[in-house]
Design a protein that fits this description.
By secondary structure, this protein is an alpha/beta fold. Helices cover 40% and strands 20% of the residues. The chain has a seven-stranded mixed β-sheet with strand order 3-2-1-4-5-7-6, sandwiched between helices. Helix 3 runs parallel beside helix 4 and helix 7 runs parallel beside helix 8. The protein starts with 5 loop residues before the first helix and ends in an 11-residue tail after the last strand.
Length: 224
């Protein structure tokens, strides 16, 4: 369920066209197997944004079965490349199979492991970063993402409103969600209060946060 008014949410889903080809097959497989790929309106928004930006180097955190990585690979510059990170073995196996099946090996590199371990070790720059992984880790990923992002680059994070929990007081949030609630609020606070980041939010799907890095930033101060 989206976070906007239900009738509008239903309408947007009704007018959002399904993808064709490989993307359509991956989207249908995810839907049939209840897998957490990005929702259709969010996927179309991501497509529109990437086609406007035409980034060369893209980092994705959270690959699942490879749907969004495949989508991104179709929208990058002609010489562009997607690097994606996934930690779950079952998803890694499916993503690798899909990358091979659809002939995307030259456009997508899949790194196996936990992003909390992988991000600190990366030393190359990216024009666009898409974050769609464990929501409770977003605030921990952020300093590394900002370090890796080129000036002028864009960070897009999915599922930031957590079904509306992010706007609630701690006592209103189910106990199992409270740690994620606090960390997501930290993440949003950092996006909106860090000099050198220009941020905005899109009430689409489960909520998108988008920011542009406008200058080099002192990493240690982002979450202080």
């Amino acid at each position: 369920m989206g976070i906007i008014e239900p009738r509008i949410d239903e309408y947007l889903n009704s007018v959002t066209k399904n993808f064709d080809g490989a993307l359509g097959e991956l989207q249908e497989y995810a839907r049939a197997n209840n897998l957490p790929v990005i929702e259709p309106p969010t996927a179309r928004f991501l497509t529109t944004l990437l086609l406007a930006l035409k980034p060369k180097q893209v980092l994705e955190i959270g690959c699942c079965i490879g749907f969004s990585a495949a989508l991104i690979s179709e929208c990058v510059a002609d010489d562009g490349h997607v690097t994606t990170i996934e930690r779950y073995g079952v998803m890694i196996e499916k993503a690798r199979a899909n990358i091979e099946k659809y002939g995307l090996g030259d456009k997508i590199t899949l790194i196996e492991g936990d992003a909390t371990d992988i991000l600190p070790a990366l030393d190359r720059k990216f024009d666009f970063i898409f974050m769609d992984a464990a929501k409770g880790q977003y605030s921990r990923f952020l300093p590394h993402c900002i370090r890796l992002l080129n000036v002028g680059g864009v960070l897009l994070a999915d599922d930031v409103f957590k079904d509306g929990y992010v706007a609630m007081d701690r006592e209103e949030v189910p106990r199992r969600q409270r740690t994620t609630h606090v960390r997501m609020q930290e993440f949003i606070h950092a996006l909106t209060n860090t000099c050198g980041l220009e941020s905005s939010f899109v009430p689409l799907g489960k909520g998108l946060a988008m920011c542009t890095k406008t200058k080099n930033i002192e990493i240690l101060n982002i979450l202080s």
